[in-house]
Every structure is written in C-alpha cells, then in structure tokens.
Amino acid sequence: MAATLYRRMLSGGLALAILAALGVFGGPTVSAQGILVIIDDSQPIRLPRPMPIPRPEPPAASYKIKELAIRAKLMDQVAQVNVSQSFVNTGSRQMEVQFLFPLPYDGAIDQLTLMVDGKEYPAKLLAAKEARTIYEGIVRRNQDPALLEWMGTGMFQTSVFPVPPGAERKVTLRYSQLLRKDGQLTDFLFPLSTAKYTSTPIETIDFQLAIESGIEIKNVYSPTHAVEVQRPDDKHAVVKFTAKNTVPTGDFRLFYDVAAGKVGASVVSYRPNDSEDGYFLLLASPQIKSDGERPKKTVIFVVDRSGSMSGKKIDQAKGAVKHVLNNLREGDMFNIVAYDSAVESFRPELEKYNEETRKAAIGFVEGLYPGGGTNIDGAMTSALAQLKDTSRPNYVIFLTDGLPTVGETAEAKIVANAKKNNTVRARVLSFGVGYDLNSRLLDRLVRENFGQSEFVRPDEDIEAHVARLYGKISSPVMTDVAIKFEYDAIKTEEGDPINRMFPKQVLDVFAGEQVVLVGRYRKPGPIKVTIAGSVAGQQQKFDFPADMRAKSHDKSFAFVEKLWAMRRIGDIIDELDLKGKNDELIRELVALSTKHGILTPYTSFLADDTGTVGGGSGFRQTAKNQERASQEANELAKSEGKSGVEQRLDKDRLRSAAQAPAADSLSDLQAGGKKALDARTGDEKSVRGLMNLGAKTFYQRAQDKRWVDASVTEDMEKNAQRVTQFSDAYFKLAEKHGKRLSQYLALEEPMLVNLDGEAWFIDPPK
Description:
Structural class: alpha+beta
Mean pLDDT: 83
Helix content: 10-25%
Shape: globular
CATH class of the largest domain: Mainly Beta
Distance between the termini: 29 Å
Strand order of the largest sheet: 8-7-12-5-4-15-18-17
Number of strands: 42
C-alpha cells in the first residue's frame, strides 16, 4: 500500500510524489499505491509507521489514504485494470504532487492512462537506470529502505498538481496487460505489501475482479486472501474482497483456469531443493450449472433437546432444523431424531420430501421442548439404523450441547457403535454447542464417519452455523470421489511417489465448491491426474495431464509449501489428540512450526523472548523445544470446557487451511505481537519474537535483538558477511539479488539473512 516519505524543501515549498507501482514477482502485478515524498536535503524524516501509542497531531505536511479500489476484467489472459486511490491532505499546507509509476519486470502494458480528479495528466517514460537513481536517492536521503524492492524497473513520471490542505484527490490508473500462465492456470498478482509502511490504516480496500471466458471457468482460487467468488454461469465469475481500516502486509494473488467438460483440474508444484521431496497443490472443480439436475440425497437431523438446551439454544436449534427442511428438494429423503434421556423420531422411517411432509416435520419441530438427560449413543444408533440406500449421499446432521449422561457414556464405545452402525458411509456432520461438552468425542465421531465437526461458541448462533454448512452440502455434484496420481514406468519396488496428501479423503464435491488438495512428491516429471466419482448417480472418470517440477528456480509458488505445512501441522495435532502422545510426531511438529513460523498452542513458546530458536550460533535447542512441546501437548487431554473446544477449533483451522500464512507487519509485532491460542485457558495470547516475511521466517534473538532467518545454519553464521544499511555495499547487494530477495533487505532492524546460500549481517547505520 502506501509508503510515505516526508522531507521539507530547501526553498521552503513542498513537493509531494505519489508512487503507483506496477511490478512483477513471479507473475504479473499491478499497483497504484501512493508514496508521498517531501523533499528537504537538510532534514531526513523516515517513513511513518502505525504506532501502538496515540499519535500526535499531524505535521504540517501529511496525508492519509482513504480508499484503494481495484476493478479488473480478466479475459483470454488479458487484464484490463482500473485502480483508484483517494488520499486526503491532513496537513496544514498545500502540497505539490507528482505521480510516479514503475514498470513491470515482464509483461506488456497497453493503454496507460493517469487521471487526477477526472483530468488526464501526461507521463514521461524513464529508463530503468534513471528510475533506479531516483529510488536509490530517496532511500539514501531518508535512511529508509522502503523502496528497495522497486529498484530496477523503469518508470512513468507525470507533471505536478496541487493538493490544498484538507482536500481529497483521487488518482485513477487505467491500463491493460498480458497475464502470465503456469500450465492451465492464469496468474493475477496485486502487491499490497508496501502497505506496511503507511502511517495510518487504509480506510477501505476493495477488489472486484470480473473473469470472462469463451469456455467454462473451472477453478478460481486465492492462496492469499479469503475471497468471495460468485458464479452467475459457467463462463463468468466475479471475485470480491473488501477490508476496512487495515494495513495489509501480503500481496493479493488469484489463480483461475478454464476447461471444457464436467470437471476441471490444475496442479501447481514447488520443489526448492531437488534432493528433497517437492510440494504440490491440486485444484479441482465440477462444472457449474445453475439449474442442472442434482443427485437425490438423504438427510437426518439428530437434535439435542436435553434440559441444558433450554432458552435461546432450543429456539436456535429449531430454526436450524426448519432451515434444512425448507431447503430440501423434491425426491430427497429425510427424518428428524430428537433426544434427551429418551429418543423420539418424527417418523418411524425415512420420509420422501414434499410439501405435505415438510409441513408435518415443521410441526414436529415446533413441539420440541427441552428436558432430561443426554442419550447420544441411543440417538445416533436410531438415526444410522434408518440408512440403507448406498446409491445416494447420506448426511447425518448431529447437534449436542452436552456430555453423554444416559445410556452408553464411554467415549470409545459411542464412537465404535456409530462406526459399526454406519453401513452406508453416511457423512456425520456434528455441531457442538457451547463449552460444556466432550469436544474430542465429536471429533472422533466424525473422523470415523467421513464427516466434519463444527463448534458453536456460547455467543454464536446455532442456526447460522447449520445454515452455512448445509448451504455447502445441499447440492452434491460428485460423490464418493477418488483422486489418483499416475506416473509412467514406475517400478513396484519404488513405491508411490506421492505422499502425505491433505485432506486424506475427498468424499464429495459440491456445487460452487472446489477441491484444494496439497501433498508431497518424490519423483518429478509428467503425471496423469485421475478423478473418479459418482455424477448424477453414474460412475464417471476424468483425467488431466500435469507436471511435477524437478527444481523451482524462484519463490513464485513458495506458498504451496507453507500451505502444506499448515495442513500437516493440523493433521499431526489431530493424531496426537485422537491417538495419544507420540515423540516422533512431536519432533515433526516442532520442526515444521520452527521452519515456517506457524504457531500452535503447543509451540507458541517458539516466539517468546528467550532466544531458544532461530538460526545459528547454538541458537537451536531442539531437545528442549521438543520436551516443552510435549509438555504443552498434555493440554489435549482436556476434552471439556473452553480450552477443550478452542484447541479443537484451532486444530481444524490448520487442517482446513485454504490460504498460506500472511506476512507480518513489524509495527503490529511491536504493538502486540503475533496471536496464538493459550491451550491452558482457551484464550488468545500475544507472543513476540517471530515474523513471517515473504517466504522466510525470522526469530528475534534475545541477547542482541537481531532478527535471524530460520534457514541460517551455525556454519553459515560463522562465515557470514557484514554490511551496513545505506552503504554502497548495501545497494550493490540489493542490485545483485533483485526484487526476489531485496524485500528482506528492507527490514529496518538488525538482521541475519540467508541470501542464496550466503549469510549476511545487515546492520543499521551507527
């Protein structure tokens, strides 16, 4: 976003330069972020940062960004982009403003137009060398490395226009650009990372991207942001993302692919070290039809009406059941099982859904009243016994707010009984309400019955949770899905080159949903991906070509490794939770958390200020860290209360992660640190001393307050070279490594960083 450089002119006037950046980092990027430069050779003023303390009155020359709006049309690998930035002069003097626009590293720009409040301004093209001189001069004069990552590009420069005090100006940039493709995926990248240098949060960031294609759009996926995707039909998609009062630190990235047929799939692979297994991401999506025939399904709602459900809980539960009833389709089968100490069904056996049975079922729901104990085993046994038809998908929506108190109460036996009675591979979807329940029982129940668990906190709405999940599962497009990766000429004794895929099972794919699967591979080369399943009751199989990279030469797809690490960590915690302590899993948990800076309730100590992890100089204390993680993991024994529920919510967050962890803002870390769950209390806590920056993880060493790259080894540190910020050697290092690694040189605190296998001490000027 916007970075702001303040300096006063020797002449006593003011000059303001707004930088709108367009660069490429592993793909096409666009940016119209403003950088304000007030020029005064006598008094350098560093970039302002968001501060954890109340800010003083704005200086004579200052501004804030009110809105950054991005509108883009993506069609046939061409992006037509409109970027508008509104900023306000919050100072007391008029500012003279110039717009600087760096060119991309690759890709052609066409139809470049710069407008200021509707008036078009001419632009002068500067060569890369001349532009670099401008960037380097700003960095040197202001003793701030913010612009390092933009050096090396050409630049457009506009004429000057005034901004009176208190006035708002809108700068609009219009252009078109050819987007980069990787395999079948088209890659759109918008850099937001410079926002960490803005003096105040951006009031509004608003993305709206319209994708059009002559053939069907299949996968639309962002590895960086939780976007909203709307699909009016097969050949159009609208992607939206909005943030308020934020300082984003990670770039926005979007992938999409197009393909004919009922299923589309794309594979992205990343292998940073050709002596180790690589990582891959599979995206798969069914054909989207707004009015197509959907498979008939069976839904049984198992609802708790015990005494603890009295008050708002039972009203919300009734609303949830009625929501499901009102959204079933003709031809679906259903029933309702209500339980307290006893078990009661709406009908003795499954009913066909129609208007008559819907009304009768709603009448049954209205007559539910809380009272009695909690017979979970009896309710699940009754529900599962009604399911006999394996030709259609079967779903059991199970709701409880308590512990089993009637009938079978042993956790293991309840799970075993449900597994034995589930003869049709029904998907059990559980909703645990409140904190007074056995959260591990619900996790084990769904794990053994092909489902998933959700937990509704005391201040949350049961109906909203159920409605959201049912909206997802209401239209299964492909069921009983099986995915295979096939290499040519693999010998039996070589084993399967594909390993550790997450999720481990892809059961059903629903309308509007796509499969996001990550895994590792031992062997590079071309492969065939086969996706098989039942489509509208008929077994079908689809195959797609893909390629596993032998070696990745940049960090363009480093997010794949990070995403895999998040899901693997969630899977490890799940294994520890449901199967008990395991030293080997604890070691892997600590290693992955340390390398990737992914904090868990059992490794949050890695980011404390004791300096026990990080890189080099005996800094790693592996045995102690594993011992401490093992002790912290004892908290998984808690299955009840706030801690028990929150630990399992955190585990599920990691297991189902769809985006890689975002970069951290240094100002946020200074203000309060990273957030992690306290396993003992179930509350969120702040931890310092860890930062994710780009593809790297840094730890702050206690003894010298230096940020240390986690990939630096002890031997590397012994041979590390030293350079001072803003020296000639510093700028030569930035020029040598380019934008790919210069982002790490832009950190303004002492650091030790690994740049292409060489360790460097970067020290601030004395």
